[in-house]
């Protein structure tokens, strides 16, 4: 006996937990993603490129760049709405969500939260519109999980600062118009807004990637790059600055990774319903249904967690360790689901005709960036025990 299939999120009627405005925004972003992004993503991924200069203005028109920020051309959307937008964009590809996250939750948020009024008025409207592309320089070749050990230095010279050092794995860097760069100073740490045409600034592209291929990634090389003090973020002098920005980006991943998992599961459901094996659809076999059931349950539970964290953030009550709970869970669950979905597609699953393996390859990076799984485990462990275990004790 056959019955009408049920979509994964419909199993527990998750839509009933959203407001009308949240559903409208989600559907608007989903429609844009279906029309403008999905038809091109396999080609972008195969070519290892992304037309950022073309896409950024379209994303600006959609209102998703810095959408959770107030003023300066930003939409002022709720945290939950921002999460839902991330989910719909990453349902197409993690590289596309990375473009949105780096622009809004890292580069724009840093200026909005830590910048002067002049800096906000100068940079944020163009970034919200997508006419100005930003990047965020924190990670270094030898300083990823431990940013306190960054080697990039900023030395005061009259009314200027001279920046020297190298940043690594920087999304958008080769195509960015502006970079928010973090450096050590004599007094601690500082953030600088660097126009990328400044002498001494270069951003060579990182190629031959096996993950996030539909994303532009590069280094930032600062060779005596001179920046006026007026471009130093004035309201932060410690690592609290970049870490606050990272939490904003991690929050978007909580929802975004589930979009990739949902798309992979939907793709697998469509495939097994038509693939004939031993004169029956693959979907009619018990082992297939067991896999599908387990994945749907894990996806739905993770979505409920994401929504709870969104509500906490909208109430101003979301703690850093709670963001770690969400990021650790969503990336783990999404990676497991996309891998399992690939198995249901058999040999077809290794081609770009289907999305699960592309999503899985991307999620290998998403699991790592904005804090590795291990770092989030230790953050949660510290919350549970009160003991800090980030450094070895002799």
From TrEMBL:
Statement: the UniProt record of this protein carries the keyword Transit peptide? yes
What does this protein need as cofactor?
Answer: FAD
Reaction(s) the record says it catalyses: a 2,3-saturated acyl-CoA + A = a 2,3-dehydroacyl-CoA + AH2
GO biological process per UniProt: fatty acid beta-oxidation using acyl-CoA dehydrogenase; fatty-acyl-CoA biosynthetic process
What keywords is this UniProt entry annotated with?
A: FAD, Flavoprotein, Oxidoreductase, Transit peptide
Limits of the Acyl-CoA dehydrogenase/oxidase N-terminal domain: 19-130
Ranges for domain Acyl-CoA dehydrogenase/oxidase C-terminal:
244-384
What SUPFAM superfamilies does this protein's entry cite? Answer: Acyl-CoA dehydrogenase C-terminal domain-like (SSF47203), Acyl-CoA dehydrogenase NM domain-like (SSF56645)
Identify the Pfam families for this entry. Acyl-CoA_dh_1 (PF00441), Acyl-CoA_dh_M (PF02770), Acyl-CoA_dh_N (PF02771)
What Enzyme Commission number(s) appear in the record?
Answer: 1.3.8.6
GO terms (molecular function) for this protein are:
fatty-acyl-CoA binding; flavin adenine dinucleotide binding; glutaryl-CoA dehydrogenase activity
Acyl-CoA oxidase/dehydrogenase middle domain residues: 135-225
Q: Which family does it belong to?
A: Belongs to the acyl-CoA dehydrogenase family.
What protein am I looking at?
Glutaryl-CoA dehydrogenase
Protein species of origin = Corynebacterium glyciniphilum AJ 3170
């Amino acid at each position: 006996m056959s019955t009408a299939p049920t979509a994964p999120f419909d199993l527990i009627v998750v839509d009933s937990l959203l407001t009308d405005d949240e559903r409208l925004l989600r559907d608007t972003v989903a429609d844009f993603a279906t029309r403008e992004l999905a038809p091109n993503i396999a080609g972008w991924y195969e070519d290892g490129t992304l037309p950022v200069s073309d896409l950024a203005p379209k994303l600006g028109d959609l209102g998703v760049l810095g959408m959770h920020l107030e003023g300066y051309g930003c939409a002022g959307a709720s945290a939950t709405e921002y999460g839902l937008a991330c989910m719909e964009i990453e349902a197409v590809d993690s590289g596309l969500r990375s473009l949105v996250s780096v622009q809004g939750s890292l580069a724009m948020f840093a200026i909005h939260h830590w910048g002067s009024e002049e800096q906000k008025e100068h940079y944020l409207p163009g970034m919200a519109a997508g006419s100005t592309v930003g990047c965020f320089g924190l990670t270094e070749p030898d300083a990823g999980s431990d940013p306190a050990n960054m080697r990039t230095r900023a030395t005061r010279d009259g009314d200027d600062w001279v920046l020297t050092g190298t940043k690594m794995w920087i999304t958008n860097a080769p195509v960015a118009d502006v970079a928010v760069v973090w450096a050590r100073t004599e007094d601690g740490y500082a953030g600088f807004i660097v126009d990328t045409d400044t002498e001494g600034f270069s951003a060579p592209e990182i190629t031959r990637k096996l993950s996030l291929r539909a994303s532009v990634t590069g280094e930032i090389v600062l060779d005596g790059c001179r920046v006026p003090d007026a471009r130093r973020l004035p309201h932060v002098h410690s690592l609290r600055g970049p870490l606050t920005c990272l939490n904003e980006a991690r929050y978007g991943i909580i929802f975004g990774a589930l979009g990739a998992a949902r798309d992979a599961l939907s793709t697998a459901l469509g495939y097994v319903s038509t693939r004939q094996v031993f004169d029956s659809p693959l979907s009619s076999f018990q082992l297939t249904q067991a896999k599908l059931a387990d994945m749907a349950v894990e996806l739905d539970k993770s979505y409920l967690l994401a929504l709870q964290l969104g509500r906490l953030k909208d109430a101003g009550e979301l703690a850093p360790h709670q963001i770690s709970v969400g990021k650790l869970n969503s990336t783990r669950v999404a990676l497991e689901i996309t891998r399992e979905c690939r198995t249901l597609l058999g040999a077809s699953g290794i081609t770009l005709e289907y999305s699960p393996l592309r999503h899985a390859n991307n999620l290998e990076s998403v699991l790592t960036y904005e804090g590795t799984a291990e770092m989030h485990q230790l953050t949660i462990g510290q919350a549970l025990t009160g003991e800090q275990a980030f450094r070895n004790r002799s």
